[in-house]
Amino acid sequence: MSTYNFGPAHGPVGYGDNTELDLETLMEAAARLTETLHAEYPALVGQGEVIQRELALSAEDGLPPNRGRIRSALENVAITAAAGTGSLTFTQYLTNALGL
Q: Bridge partners of 4?
């Protein structure tokens, strides 16, 4: 499993000051984003699934995830999600965790 070092992790996953975010942690955050999108913005669920798919592919092949696809999906959610929603919180968390 790949390990990504993106600095301190603060956010909805709640891993405190862990300086290494492994792929499993990112996949958990992406799953929680998709789950939250189901409740808040059902039309955007596909964007969450894109992120999950890219992280799963990374886990399979051992290569870094496709940052361009993930960035586009996160931007699509960020444009629509209202301030204070769980969807935006997870989006910001993943954006920061991936250094996008």
A: 21
SS (H, E, C) 24-70: HHHHHHHHHHHHHHHHHCHHHHHHHHHHHHHHHHHHHHCCCCCHHHH
At residue 82, the pLDDT reads 92
Q: How far apart are CA 45 and CA 16, in angstroms?
A: 27
Q: First vs last Cα of the chain: how many Å apart?
A: 21
Report yes or no on whether pTM surpasses 0.90: no
For residue 80, count other CB atoms closer than 10 A to its CB: 17
Q: Is 51 left (phi over 0), alpha (psi -120 to 50) or beta?
A: alpha
* Contact yes or no for 93/11 (Cβ under 8 A): yes
CA 11-44-36 angle, 5° bins: 40
List the one residue out of 46, 96, 89 whose CA is nearest residue 71: 96
Q: Which amino acid is at 31?
A: A
